[in-house]
Structures
1.
Amino acid sequence: MHKILKDIRAIIDESMALHLPHVKTSDLEKNGAIFYMNGNNGTEFDWYVNERLPAFMTFYNDEDNLGAVKLLLYNNGETEIYIYDENGKNLIKRGYTHISANKTEIFRLAGILKNQADDQRIWDADIESINTNIEISNNALDELKGCQQNYAAMKHRKNILNLTACVSKKITEEGWKVGYMERNDPCNKEDSGWFFASGIEDEGYFSDCKNIELVCVGNVWQQLDSDIFPHIDMPIGTRLIRISEDTFEVDKNDKEIYVLKR
């Protein structure tokens, strides 16, 4: 097994002993095997969008098959650990530690895992079943480096999702979807510049600041209106209106806003 994976094994074993001493290896899937969870997006996506490898997890061996420990290894060597009790139903600990590996070493591991798991169509497998005791070629690493440009737009969108937007309470409280969206200069580094309105607000509605909420763009997308997602990386100065149930276009002041409730 690759040295970094041995370090991950040691961290997970130590976390189990410290925080889940009552859980036996027989209570876990494959007696506590660690699974490389690349089946959702793959190694490339997580490396270039989330700046880490896909999660490493152990699972409870029961009908629900929920996680006992989840470990995230970031490209700087930092690890983020989640520990779950009650057969995975209760998060009892979230912590951080660090492994003694630099970005180059972790990148080489990413190349090995892509080559020996993703490229072999091996998904969410026990890390001991993946052949990681190999030397990865420079050509394979160059190929992985070349994939970075494919994820630049996704990473940019992810960054925007973590910023705030001004949102009409017609959307947050009354259940209307976004009918108008406009991107202005951000006020600070936490601000996306986005302003979302329903399209039914009257002329004086926004003169009262109590009718506007600051909401994370990701929450607007996930909880209030998924239709905004394709447009969130559009530049400052963008003004869009909804023209159908799922379509926006540039506002040219020649069409009525199509208003819609969730």
Note: The first strand starts at residue 35 and ends at 36.
2.
Amino acid sequence: MKDYLGYAGKTVVVTGASSGMGKETARLLVELGAKVYALDWNKCDVENIAEFVHVDLSKKESIDEAMDQLPTVIDAFFGIAGVSGAKHDFLTTVSIDFIANKYICEKYLVERMKANGAIAFMTSTAGNGWEKEDNKEVYLPIIEANDYEEIIAILCQKGLQYLPGTLGYPFSKLAMNYYTVYLQKLFAQKGIRVNAVLPGSTKTGMKDEFSQMAGGEKALLSHCGYAGRLAEAKEMAEPIVYLNSDMASYISGALLEVDYGNTAEEKAGIRKIEQEISLKMIMQMLQQKLNNK
């Protein structure tokens, strides 16, 4: 049978490959014949991967060490690693969920990926509203920052380090959704596509954390559209594998919402918007808190 997806023999990198969506993605890519380099903090036990590389995505030096262990030519990159923020502070959450992806793309992938390559991120429907000017006003400075240290400095100048990690999650996803589109100008001229999957509520090892953040499992289920259930991790792995495949050769800049129609209905006004982050409002609350100190 023809290899329609085109992964056989290709060199692919998957971050967050030890659990959840990342693990399912790595497993599927191995089955499709790719040489999978799995990056994560915890050991990846997916059979027949090319190599596991330990990395702390919250630290620039660790990312540098990990990238030094990877091939100099990469066909496809899957930026899937992420944390909810429930167990991390704001800066650590943003470092893992956003800064690591930006740093890897601009420092390494721009040189290591060849024409007809592809990059795909696992972001979130928690980043809906990324296109609103009030939100862009807050996160654009870190999108436009030139290096890792400058991003951290900008976040600290704004006082964002005082926010809880649970707000670092939607902040990162808003930024990542915009960043997926922003990267077109950097990679399109090189013949490299960049897309993202925006999962709805999904059953992973972080399910309990997200349930608590949403206000209970019923609230978490409200983001699942008419499916009436949480998605399985595999149901997010399959779309992101498709987006980086040869079958999606003319798809770039796509933010694929995988939530059983929930976001589409919200945009159409058919379903009430349950929750959408306003970064401007958060910044106003933060400023008031800092002024009262």
Note: The mean pLDDT is 92.
3.
Amino acid sequence: MKLICYTLEGKQIDVQPAGAERPWIDDTRDQFAKRCLPLVVANAHGWQVRLLEGCWLKWNGGIYPKDLKVKTDSGTSDVIASHFGHGIVTFKVHCLFRTEPGINLWVTGPVNSLKDGIQPLSGLLETDWMPYTFTMNWKVTRKRKWIRFEKGDPIAQVFPVPRGMVDTTEPELRSLASEDKLNDMVLGWHQSRKAFIEALRARDPDTISQAWQKHYFRGQYPDGSPGSSEHQTKIRPKPFKSD
């Protein structure tokens, strides 16, 4: 599948494959957060748009654009501004993404990246036809506090999703007990997990040497047999090629 990023004449953009690393994950005790495969795979799911210059933001709590102060490192910028009021900062993205027919583009903040006092806002774009650029918006949540974005910080993460998938999905609620095989696997996993945690608390040497159970990470069922042949432990989005 193709994902094309058309850059606007005379404008710059820094768009890169998203990486799995996050500073706060590295800072966890024994880097235990790296063991959470769904978390790490989500980090690298797509591409990130990065800032070309740093800025400071401060919101006084008002509803008007003037109530959000924006100070860029260059002193002037056509990329970072307050347009909507209510503590929303707008980052212009000087490009046009194009997806294949029937494919939308999910636009969100950098996944599992934390910034105190401000929250990214997500959007879904029909990029297979729209001739419009878009903006990435963040909502300040902490009043009267200076918030810093550095040059190179990711401000958006994008990835393609099939249009209509949610609308055509048929959700059902079922009792787990109605699926004997699945129920047995889940109960077996719960028992195994409980025994593992109890052994850790008892400081059992063999259990401590394992550190954590790796069934999902390895793509295995609780009994150690293989799960899906398409199990992923890494996502490697390709960089954009220049023509």
Note: Helices lie at 23-26, 37-43, 165-168, 180-201, 205-210, 215-218.
